[in-house]
């Protein structure tokens, strides 16, 4: 990211430093249940604390209405968890740009940390409202964006404020963008990408982009059935997008022309209902019963996918192979996760979202080279789109 200035180039000593972080974390009964995203921001926060900055953190959490405070979406437990991780007190403002935020920001001393209440309690955040941008910017003297997970959104805290203050990228932002662009521009080969998830329509731009760049493209999840339809197979009651079948067929042809090998399932686990206790069987993709739906790749497919993964030198994974949240349909995703973890020779990059949940579920996160904190942002970057949160730092 040569055209973006690093936090290390910022003059922060004694200055109120406004930092956009991604603390969109799960909270239950007032306790953070997964602090991955808070931990991901620690290097930047700790650097600023050590440099004598007066650190003002801002984040959204969930999807509140934007009409003011909602208990279900408060960031107060995130402040408590951050305080534990830093081993130092973290002040918490009960509003975002109001009197409490202004008073607590003004009272900060060098090396102290303040977290503002949920940005999205104010509907002006998502609208990138100029007045809200100015109110946020007035709290600080320097701006640092370390929230890659929201870099694909042109909101007040990700884009607007960067126009009003000297703007820099935090360590997480630099690492995310650097890793993903490096993978696309100069991957070690063979470069294998694994795409899952439910819909072809959601992933088509990513598929298009990866066909041009990778050697092997492995497809699983609900979207594989639209591709199987394109190959003339019957898929029963499986998830399918009829109006994307022709596009899927074109994609298969284009991949062949580009020299990108596409792997599709040869067997699947089918069920008579979308339920944990459904009646299941494993069948060939040429024999999917008309009254059953595919909910996972089968064992034969999992073996073929694992063998391909073992030969790769760069692996990018976004999207599960099946409904891995249910025990009956987790085997395919687990097999792929284990194969990626086992390939110690490869650069293994997990592209956010459900793939991260999967590697965490199976206890394999520490065996991956890089885990992205931003599903949507990483997908947009891979498909070649400019990220507003990154562009604003240039």
From TrEMBL:
Keyword ATP-binding attached: yes
Cellular component terms per the entry's GO annotation: cytosol
Catalytic reaction list: (2R)-3-phosphoglycerate + ATP = (2R)-3-phospho-glyceroyl phosphate + ADP
Residues that bind substrate: 22-24, 37, 60-63, 120, 153
One GO process term, biological-process aspect: gluconeogenesis
Main location: cytoplasm
Keyword annotations from UniProtKB, A to Z: ATP-binding, Cytoplasm, Glycolysis, Kinase, Nucleotide-binding, Transferase
UniProt-annotated location(s): Cytoplasm
Binding positions for ATP per the UniProt entry: 203, 294, 325, 352-355
The protein's Enzyme Commission number: 2.7.2.3
Pfam families: PGK
Pathway it works in: Carbohydrate degradation; glycolysis; pyruvate from D-glyceraldehyde 3-phosphate: step 2/5
Sites where the protein binds (2R)-3-phosphoglycerate: 37, 120, 153
GO molecular function: ADP binding; ATP binding; phosphoglycerate kinase activity
Enzyme class: transferase
Superkingdom of source: Bacteria
Cross-referenced PANTHER family: PHOSPHOGLYCERATE KINASE (PTHR11406), PHOSPHOGLYCERATE KINASE 1, CHLOROPLASTIC-RELATED (PTHR11406:SF23)
Subunit structure: Monomer.
Similarity comment: family membership: Belongs to the phosphoglycerate kinase family.
Protein name: Phosphoglycerate kinase
């Amino acid at each position: 990211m040569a055209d973006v200035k690093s936090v290390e180039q910022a003059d922060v000593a004694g200055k109120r430093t406004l930092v956009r972080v991604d603390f969109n974390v799960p909270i239950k009964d007032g306790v953070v249940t997964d602090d991955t995203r808070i931990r991901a921001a620690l290097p930047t926060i700790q650097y600023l604390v050590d440099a004598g900055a007066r650190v003002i953190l801002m984040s959204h959490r969930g999807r509140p209405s934007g009409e003011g405070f909602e208990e279900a979406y408060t960031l107060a437990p995130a402040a408590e968890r951050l305080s534990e991780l830093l081993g130092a007190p973290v002040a918490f403002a009960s509003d975002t740009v109001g009197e409490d935020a202004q008073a607590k920001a003004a009272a900060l001393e060098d090396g102290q940390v303040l977290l503002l209440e949920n940005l999205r309690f104010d509907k002006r955040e998502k609208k990138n409202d100029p007045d809200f941008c100015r109110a946020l910017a007035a709290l600080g003297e320097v701006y640092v964006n370390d929230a890659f997970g929201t870099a694909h959104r042109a909101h007040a805290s990700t884009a607007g404020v960067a126009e009003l203050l000297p703007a820099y990228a935090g360590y997480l932002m630099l690492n995310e963008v650097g890793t993903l662009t490096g993978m696309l521009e100069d991957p070690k080969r063979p470069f294998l990408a694994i795409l899952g998830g439910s819909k072809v329509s959601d992933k088509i731009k990513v598929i298009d982009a990866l066909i041009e760049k990778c050697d092997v493209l492995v497809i699983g999840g609900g979207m594989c059935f639209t591709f199987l339809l394109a190959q003339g197979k019957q898929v029963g009651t499986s998830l399918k997008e009829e109006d994307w079948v022709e596009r899927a067929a074109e994609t298969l042809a284009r991949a062949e022309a580009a020299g990108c090998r596409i792997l599709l399932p040869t067997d699947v686990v089918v069920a008579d209902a979308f339920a944990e206790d459904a009646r299941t069987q494993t069948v060939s993709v040429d024999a999917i019963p008309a009254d059953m739906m595919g909910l996972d790749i089968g064992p034969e497919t999992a073996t073929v996918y694992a063998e391909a993964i073992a030969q790769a030198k760069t692996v990018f994974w976004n999207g599960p192979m099946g409904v891995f949240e249910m025990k009956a349909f987790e085997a395919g995703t687990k097999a792929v996760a284990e194969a990626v973890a086992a390939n110690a020779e490869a650069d293994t990059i997990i592209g956010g979202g459900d793939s991260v949940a999967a590697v965490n579920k199976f206890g394999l996160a520490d065996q991956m080279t890089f885990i992205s904190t931003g599903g949507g942002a990483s997908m947009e970057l891979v498909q070649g789109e400019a990220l507003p949160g990154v562009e604003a730092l240039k």
